C-alpha cells in the first residue's frame, strides 16, 4: 500500500494513528515495525512525534495503533511495555514505544507452584487470573474434553513459559483478537478451523487493481515425519505394554516417556490422542506459503483465500501463521508536507486443510540434581502412606503448600529391594526430611530416594561420640516412647550386635536353625516361657547344669524316658513326692542305693511288685514298721532267714501256721514257753505220736517208750493201768 491513491480516499488524513489511554497529547506515527505469530507475543515498535511527554505517562498504559486500509481498519491494541526518548525533529520530540499484549507481563512473573486435580483449561485460567488478566480479556475456545491432571508443577519458569508448554502439550494454540478498545487472548484447540480475516477474505496475487493484494507468494511442500510412536509406563499395571502410534510410514518419531496414561488415570491425555497431537504439530507446516502483501488485515490465527486464475495451483484457503509489518508516514513530522507513506508486510501461512498445532518449542523445566522435602500428612497422623508405599511431601520451595496431605501427589519411595510381596520396606514418617529426585529431571515425576537428618531430626546416638555405631532404629507410633532396634557396634574390643524389641519378637525358621556361641549365653524371661519341639530335642552340656524353678515343675513324656548319671545324683524334695507309674517300673543300681525319708513314706503298688537285690539288703526303720498284704506272702532265702525283735515277736495266722525245716527245728526260750491249743495238740515223729486233747486226755503211742529221770518219777491217777 502506497500513496498512489489512498491519501485521496482518506482525505489526506494520517494512515497510521496511535493513542495511549489517559494521554491527551497528539501522538503522530512516523514509522513502525511489528511482528505477530500464532502462539507468540506480538510486538510493535512505533516511532512517534509529539510534544514533550513524561515517559511514565506512557509506560504500562493500554494503547492502540490504528492502520487504515482500503477494505477495513486494522487495530492493534496492547500494552505499552517500554517507552523511550530517541531525539528531536524541528518541531517535535521523538519517542519510540513498544506495544505488546497484556500477557507480556507473564514473562516477568516466575514461580514455583503445584497444581493438583485440575485440568489444563482450569490451570490456564488460574494462572492468567492470578497475573491480573481479567476473565473478559481471554477466551477458551475448546472442543476436546480435558481430564484433571493428578499433578502439574510450574518450576522456576515464567508464567508465560508455563502456560505456553501446557498449551503446546495439549494441542492448544493462541492468538489475539483486536478492537479499538481492547485485545482478547483466544486459546483454541480447533486446529481444523479458523475464522476468516476481517472484510473480504479473498486476496489476489499480483493484482494491479486498486485493492489490497499479495505482492509476492511462494508455496512449498516439504517432507515431514509420517508417524509418531509413544511408549509410557503405568505404576498400577507395569507389565502392560502402553504403546500408542499415529500415522503410517518409515519416517517415525519415537519418544519415551509419552506423557500419557489411561483415560481417567490423572494424565493429560491417553496415548492415541497424544500421538495424534504430536503428529499434527509436526505436519502442520508441510504445505507452507510465504509472501508479501499490502493488506494489514492479515492477522495470525485467521484465514484468507488466495485467488490467482492464472496460477490455479496456488489457489486455496490459507491460515496466517506469522506476519511482520512495516509502516512509514514521514509527513507526520511536518503538517504541511505532502510526502509518500508506505505499508507492507511479510507473512507466512499454512494450508488450512492441514490441522494446525503449535510446535512444541517451549522447553520443559529440568530439576538439576536432587532436592530435599518434608514428609507431610493429615493433622495428628504420624505415618501417612497408600497401598503402594507412597508418601506426600512438602517441597521447601512451595509457598502455597499447607504442609498436609494436600501438599503434593503421592510420591513413590525408593527401597533397597522391591519384589512381588518381598523386599525391604521403610516408610518415611511425617516430619522426616527426605531426598527427592525426579525421573528424567521432570518436576512432575518426583521420587523419594533417601532420608537425611536435620536440626529437628537428630541421629539415634550422639555423634561423633558414637561414630562406630550403625543402627536401624524405629519409633513406636503413635506417640513415640518406644523403639525396635538392630544395632552394630564396631569399636575394637567392644564389638556387639544389639537387638531390641519394644514388645513382641517372633522368629520363624522354616528349616534348620543353628546357633554357635563362643563363650557365655544368658537368657532372662520376665514371664512365661514355652518351647515346643516337633521331634527330638538334644541338650549337650560340657560341664555343670543348674535348673532352678521358683514354683512348680511339670514334665510330661509321651514315650520312654532315660536318665543316665555318670557319677552321683542327689535329689532333694522340700515336701512330698508322688510318683505314678502306669505299667512297670524298673530301678537298676550298680552299687549302693539309699532312700532316706524324714517323715512318713507310703508305697502303693496296684498290682504285683517284684524286688530283686543282687547282694545284701538292709532296711532300717526308726519307729514301727507295718506291712499289710491283701493276698499271700512268700519269703524265700537261699540261706538263712533271721527275725529278731528287741521285745516281743508275735506270729499269727487266721487259719494255719506251717513251719517246715529241711533238717533241724530249734526253739530256744530264755525263760518261759507256753503253747496253748484250743482243741487238739499233736506231736508226731516217725511212728511215735503224742496227742493232747481239750478233754484233758494225753495219748502217747510209740513202738518203744523210755522214761528216764535223774530223780524220782511220780505217777498219779484215779486208776493206773499197766499192761
UniProtKB/TrEMBL annotation:
Domain Gp5/Type VI secretion system Vgr protein OB-fold residues, every copy: 385-453
Q: What are the start and end residues of every segment in region (Disordered)?
A: 232-252, 459-487
- InterPro entries the UniProt entry points to: Gp5/Vgr_OB, Gp5_Vgr_C, T6SS_RhsGE_Vgr_subset, T6SS_Vgr_RhsGE, T6SS_VgrG/RHS, Vgr_OB-fold_dom_sf
Keyword Metal-binding on this protein? no
- State whether keyword Cell membrane applies: no
Q: Which UniProt keywords apply?
A: Secreted
Q: Which GO terms describe its cellular component?
A: extracellular region
Compartments annotated for it: namely: Secreted
Residues forming the Gp5/Type VI secretion system Vgr C-terminal trimerisation domain are 470-579
- Family indicated by similarity: Belongs to the VgrG protein family.
Descriptive protein name: Type VI secretion system tip protein TssI/VgrG
> What species is this protein from?
Nannocystis pusilla
